[in-house]
Write the structure tokens for this entry.
Amino acid sequence: MRNPHYSRRPTMRDIADELGVTQATVSLVFRNKPGTSDEMRRKVLETADRLGYVRDESARALRSQRPTAIGVTFRTHQPFHDELLDGLYRAVSPGPHKLVLSAVSDSRQEKDAIEELISHRCGAAVILGPRITDEQLSVYSGRIPLIIVARRSDRPEIDWVTSDDQQGMDAVVDHLVSLGHRDIAYLSSSIDASGSARIDAFIQACEGRGVGEHVQVHTAGITENDGARGVEQMLAGNRRATAVVAFNDRCALGAMEALHRRGVRIPQDISLVGFDDSTIASRPTIDITSVHQDTGELARIAIERAAARMMGEEPAAGDHGQIVATRLVVRSSSGSALSS
Amino acid sequence: MRNPHYSRRPTMRDIADELGVTQATVSLVFRNKPGTSDEMRRKVLETADRLGYVRDESARALRSQRPTAIGVTFRTHQPFHDELLDGLYRAVSPGPHKLVLSAVSDSRQEKDAIEELISHRCGAAVILGPRITDEQLSVYSGRIPLIIVARRSDRPEIDWVTSDDQQGMDAVVDHLVSLGHRDIAYLSSSIDASGSARIDAFIQACEGRGVGEHVQVHTAGITENDGARGVEQMLAGNRRATAVVAFNDRCALGAMEALHRRGVRIPQDISLVGFDDSTIASRPTIDITSVHQDTGELARIAIERAAARMMGEEPAAGDHGQIVATRLVVRSSSGSALSS
């Protein structure tokens, strides 16, 4: 049975009839082509609005063979991805591109989210914080241009944009060393490549500042429970640490809670630093020092690259990735190291 | 220029050629029709997988005039919407329907989010927590079946599913009264109809329990800053309250922070209750008593109604809405009232 709602969808013909002009005139306005007066342009858009005309993007994309939709996969329950989504919408508006979102969720894998974007004929896919491997991604890159955000890729066919983890970790360690910290623990995430990039950056930052010898790494993860587990593991060991740096803010929050439970005071007994500068880190009751990522800029570059790839442009060799500057936001969770 | 990636998209013909069968056979398998052996079915699906064949949903929807996509609008930075999204994906999988998401964000209005779903030929639109009026919604309901979640509608053409606010508020007030509270303040949100439904439920709950006379209402909103402002307004007044109920958990968190800043202890000096039982309310460092909404059930009903409307079914008169039970989750933010 045909959906009865569809029979009432107004068409370009309805607009043309209403104004007593040809469909071609209406079409020129919608395609932003010359050949109509400003006055006619205004009338057409007004009438379209009044009749409730909505352009049929999927039919248009099929006819023109030039897709306008940029697909986006994001993860639910990730404030950092919410901020990237805000940035992506800002980056496409106003402009010819539309976003089609496909979520990765507890019941839905990244693979399914990407395949759905392909099946909906998106012209490119922006993948926020991918966890599947480069090898798995490259299977898709043959079918749709891929732009990954918050991770690098060695594959020349995959575009990427990510924050400057090294600069961020350098700033974190500079800050802690200036407060007298020498024994710094790291709560790592090994769930994906961004985890390994960040731990490398952290270790390099410590080595560059003469505190590399005392570094200890504890396996944690990306959630609050992971962070709590990581810090319990640290407290159970017999190596002292006066500061803890966590892979992200959720992990840092879990660490904060576990430290509170054990009666360890922040920052008097131990300093704590997160990553992402998410909404939660900035709440006055939480107030965790963290590395801010420029989500607006990350999003802008992702859309720019998606649009270029959709036009068939290929970046110059070795030029398929971009790194965006970060900055440290100091809050009350980091303070002077105890003199021992 | 045609996107070079598209020329490599495998087709049904490629699968048929690979197996030495006709395209009709392949098509039967994909359409779930009888006429092929289980063995052939298995081979076709395996080959499709290996070649990386993805069904072109938008082309199929156009050909069949029967859309399979259910559009969803949600709001970024709303943990409650994240949970509904998890539920919606669970509700459509496995099944013939796909979700197309369109976000409402700081740079993007609800109106734009809904129009995009229409332009992408979705068969129905599920609107999470709409803020636009019923009158504005009804403009769209002529073009696409609408199912709204977390709000009611009087319009018979709009389906809705929402939590039982009255049951939730009854449980909150029962809980507070049993702890000895008589003077209860409410931090309201007037941003949308769910705000007014919830405040009505709160006042009715208080009146039904003999504490209606002492109720005080302070205008707050849906964010942490709104909650902080509402509680400051309450503290500036000269009417005492021993318990505060907030429109949602974000508002309650802001209230908690403002109370902490003023040195007011929770729950010794004042009890605090939120709504939504979101991830943040359940963090051990926050730990706010809150009303749990069954997001899985809300999502399941929304998809069921969307699917029915897409088949052209209309609910019986007066049967276009459903109410889902809630339950109170008691945490450490609520305790005994001080004896005065």
